[in-house]
């Protein structure tokens, strides 16, 4: 009887310890302010189908679903503007957590470094279903109405016990994309662009101004006989890199609230001789 009581006490002690560790973990998860970094590892655009897809690796991201959604939504709406959505009315982004094997240098078909498996060490997205954070998509109809949806994947307890968690799927319909875009602009506070330090990178210049830079980069990348990219950049990236600093400043000025664009005037005299014949 005495031994039974002692076992009960030990069980209660371990259970209490487990609860305390869990509460501390939850507290850290909810209160820790992460500054996630996003790295685009794949981009596909089809003008014929009006579809664009980005796959991103995210570093320093919380396990809290609300924080994951907030970070992903902020990235989605700050990296594509209204003109981009009108050009590609079907836009999708998939976000993955950066891990030991799923890094910002991931390229499907390449070999894992470090070794992932002795049986098959080829990089494959199917190996990383558990690393998914969320998906965000928007589909716009010709009349301007459409659907916006997101799916947050189960995160479990710091990535463990995911069987106790579940995915969250939300779909929102809208009647006017312009109104919906401005609503997101207001709620996420991304309309004001007044700091060149927050915008002055080559990647952000390309993403903010339109998808043309990414498309040109993709089209001008050298490829092998099978069609696989031989490099991560194309010839057009050199041009964009050289033009980034000045173009970035110009873009910020054009989009600052209340900014009145300056007017450039030129005067040139041309002497014309023997152009108009006389009789």
Would you mind describing this structure in some detail?
By secondary structure, the protein is of the alpha+beta class. It has seven helices and six strands; from the N terminus they run H-E-E-H-H-E-E-E-E-H-H-H-H. The protein has a six-stranded mixed β-sheet. Helix 2 (65-79) crosses helix 4 (177-188) and helix 5 (202-209) crosses helix 7 (235-255). The longest helix has 30 residues, at 2-31. The model is unreliable at 192-202 (pLDDT under 50).
Question: How is this fold's topology laid out?
Answer:
Layout lengths: L1 H30 L5 E10 L4 E9 L5 H15 L2 H6 L2 E8 L34 E9 L5 E7 L15 E7 L2 H12 L13 H8 L2 H8 L15 H21 L24
Helix pairs in contact: 2-4, 5-7
| Whole-number count of domains | 2
Strand segment tally: 6
Share of helix among residues? 25-40%
Largest beta sheet: strand ordering: 1-2-3-4-5-6
Order of helices and strands: HEEHHEEEEHHHH
Counting helices, strands and paired strands, the structural category is: alpha+beta
Distance between the termini: 131 Å
């Amino acid at each position: 009887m005495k031994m039974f009581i002692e076992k009960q006490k030990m069980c209660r002690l371990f259970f209490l310890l487990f609860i305390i560790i869990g509460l501390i973990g939850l507290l850290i998860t909810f209160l820790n302010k992460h500054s996630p970094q996003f790295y685009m590892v794949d981009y596909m655009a089809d003008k014929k189908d009006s579809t664009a897809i980005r796959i991103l690796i995210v570093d320093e991201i919380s396990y809290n679903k609300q924080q994951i959604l907030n970070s992903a939504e902020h990235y989605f709406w700050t990296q594509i503007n209204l003109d981009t959505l009108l050009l590609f009315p079907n836009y999708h982004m998939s976000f993955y957590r950066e891990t030991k094997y799923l890094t910002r240098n991931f390229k499907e078909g390449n070999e894992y470094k470090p070794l992932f498996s002795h049986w098959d060490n080829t990089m494959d997205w199917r190996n990383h279903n558990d690393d998914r954070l969320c998906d965000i998509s928007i589909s716009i109809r010709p009349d301007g109405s459409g659907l916006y949806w997101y799916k947050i994947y189960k995160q479990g307890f710091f990535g463990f016990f995911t069987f106790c968690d579940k995915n969250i799927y939300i779909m929102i319909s809208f009647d006017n994309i312009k109104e919906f875009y401005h609503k997101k602009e207001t709620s996420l506070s991304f309309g004001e662009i007044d700091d060149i330090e927050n915008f002055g990178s080559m990647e952000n210049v390309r993403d903010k101004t339109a998808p043309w830079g990414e498309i040109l980069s993709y089209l001008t990348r050298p490829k092998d006989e099978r069609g696989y990219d031989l490099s991560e950049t194309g010839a057009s990236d050199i041009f964009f890199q050289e033009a980034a600093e000045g173009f970035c400043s110009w873009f910020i000025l054009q989009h600052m609230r209340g900014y009145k664009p300056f007017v450039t005037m030129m005067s040139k005299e041309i002497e014309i001789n023997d152009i108009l014949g006389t009789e």
